[in-house]
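HUMAN: Now follow token order:
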Amino acid sequence: MGHEAEFVALKSFLNNDRDLAYAELAARLNKSEVALRSIVSRMRKRVREFLLEVIKETVCDPAQLEAEMNHLKAALRES
């Protein structure tokens, strides 16, 4: 499975809105469950870092950064 197909399979794990359990997807991707959890953890970290960089460009006060991130998370949960 290529990286793009792997990302498609894993992207639902970014916000815990997934149809498959870790064990089931790990078997499908021919990875251990521990490896899959590690991959998802790194993906979440990278996405968070990327979003923080983008949000940082939109706020005047760096103190607003976390509040904006929380607002974005809430908006994504509602959609």
In short: The radius of gyration is 15 Å.
